[in-house]
Amino acid sequence: MQILLGLDGSELSVRALDRTIERASETGDSLTVAVYVDTTDETLDDLEQLARDRIGSATVDAAVHRIEGDPGSGLLELAADGYDRIVLGGGTISPMGKIRLGDVVEFVLANATTTVTLVR
User: CATH assignment of 2-119, given 3.40.50.150, 3.40.50.620, 3.40.50.1820, 3.30.450.20?
Assistant: First the structure.
């Protein structure tokens, strides 16, 4: 399976990265990590280094791709290159018990033709 993971540096996206690396190690899935700046103060260089550090400590080979510009559109354009699944961290619970999604997650969910998995 070809997996594309979006990483913006948020706690949820880092959790999604760790879980996806673990799964790819167990199943032999092919993994590409797409880094983009969304809501954190991190730079693309910081996020790329974070991804490479996490990948380097695992038993999985993965590519790291930078998305500049609109992250939602960039993820969908990249996913169109033959990925079977997009994995994103997202979905916090509001005080009233409703799931809140970030702008990028919401855009990808609404427009993806590929299966999308949210990791919370």
Answer: 3.40.50.620
